[in-house]
Amino acid sequence: GLMRGDVQFSGRADQPIVSAQLQVLGARIGGRDLHPIELTADLSEDRMTADFGLRPREGGALLGRAEATFPLRLQPLPGRAELLGSEDLIAELSGQGFPIDVLLAFVPGLSDEAGTMTLEGRITGSLLHPQPDIQLRVEGGKACARKLGLCYENVRLASSLRRGRFDIAELWADTVPQVVNPIDVVRGRVRPGQRSGIGLKGSIGLDGLQPDDVELQVDLARSWLMYSPEIQVQADGEIGVRGTYPFLEVTGGVDVQNVAI
How far is CA 144 from CA 66, 141, 160, 195, in A? Predict the structure, then answer.
């Protein structure tokens, strides 16, 4: 796409007025054409507002709006706490039916992405210490990992991020070999129609952007871990991860039922 934008300054050095606009025209991400991507921000009388919109031509939009005190001074420059510490941040996020292939296009090694995402929530607190309350769901997700020779299909996610804690009520994906060798079917190593997948649930405490206390459970249901011409691995089991990062305790067991190298 083509990017264009401008920033305008006016007012006084001790109370500037700033207006900024950025557009990306003719953008294409993950094989999808997008409406113009827009980001605008305005600062006046120490109050900042910002709006963001990401709208595929097919599918739902991802929208955001934020307001906060931002006492910018050009002379002298304010300290970080003064500039970002006001406890009046209000940010709204929404995205209904947003195609996740637009986001997964930035992850290297993935292909055939599909599915929709629903994002709803708000962020309060301050720019320095934001307090999110966000719900994130994914339905009908799919992505293929070329190096592993696998596709993750029927992906579903129900999660939330609230005040320093990321909770995963459900994360599940069917694991399917990307290209099946017919000889493996004859030998019974691959059984068409057999359900196999991997699941995850639990929670992660956050200290800023760093993980803190962790409690996760991983379920392997005849899950394919790799399927390539050289290596095929399929496993059952349950794994628990608990503790305070980075001192984590891993418990459980894995039964590797199907291995070929």
Answer: 35, 11, 25, 17
Tokens of 86: 């006001």
Query: Other C-beta atoms within 10 Å of 8: how many?
Result: 10
**DSSP codes of every residue in 112-177:** EEEEEEEEEEEEEE-SSSEEEEEEEEEEEEEEEETTTTEEEEEEEEEEEEETTEEEEEEEEEEEEE
Helix, strand or coil, per DSSP, at residue 83: helix
Whether the per-residue pLDDT at 256 is higher than 90: the answer is no
Q: How far is CA 207 from CA 123, 126, 204, 214, in A?
A: 16, 15, 10, 12
Tell me the whole-structure pTM to 2 decimals: 0.83
Residue type, 258: N
The whole-angstrom separation of Cα 123 and Cα 142 is 29
